[in-house]
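Quick bug: 3-ketoacyl-ACP reductase output formatted oddly.
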Amino acid sequence: MDLGLKESTAFITGGAGTLGFAMATRFLQEGGNVVICDANQEAIDTACEKLTALGGSVLGVRADVTNKDEVALAVQEATHKWKKIDVLVNNAGFARDRYLTKMSEEDWHAVLDVTLQGAFHCTRAVLPIMMDNRYGRVINIASRAHLGNPGQTNYSAAKAGLIGFTRSLALESGKFGITANAVAPGVISTPRMQQRSDYQELTERAKSNTPVARLGDPSDVAATVAFLASRLAGFTTGETVHVTGGRYA
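Here's what came back:
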């Protein structure tokens, strides 16, 4: 099925990480151009080298998404190369788990700043470009944790906030031909997770608690993002798509 992403330009924050790389790979497979935006230059270089080897058109830009000036420069570099940004994926984020009574203010702000402030900076920088083109797709990577997880008050609050951000943005931007949706992954098998001492236990728990009895794969998330980025999803906006294998509570 042709998703209509050929020659479209996708700007992916946290693009050098596991999920970002999977999304970038899928966009390239669909014939699109990809901007890998990340705070880690070494990781950007590695990701771009691998993606270029696949035969894709890739640009790596370094930016801390909590810094609006760095974001503006990254967006400027992307538009200088491809003149437009059709798809923005606000994927940058991380968890710093700790029970609330033991959570530092630094860990609280770090998680919310990257997830929420980062999405604010990146969307505000890209949206005028999409408005001028009367077309765009904004996809925010939330998490099943928006429903709440013990030890993740910061992460859950950030992801729940991102969903509210998505809904409001959808209402504001639809008249410009721009859609805004969120993707909420469940437990995804990443290299970092596979290194955990309880990885086998997590796998078995997923098999017993999830209707689709397995852990998720980064490609599962990438496929959903690709659909929401496509022209086929032009009447879908303000939604949160759970990629959890059916696990919610």
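Actually, after a second look the formatting is fine. The chain has eight helices and seven strands. Closing.
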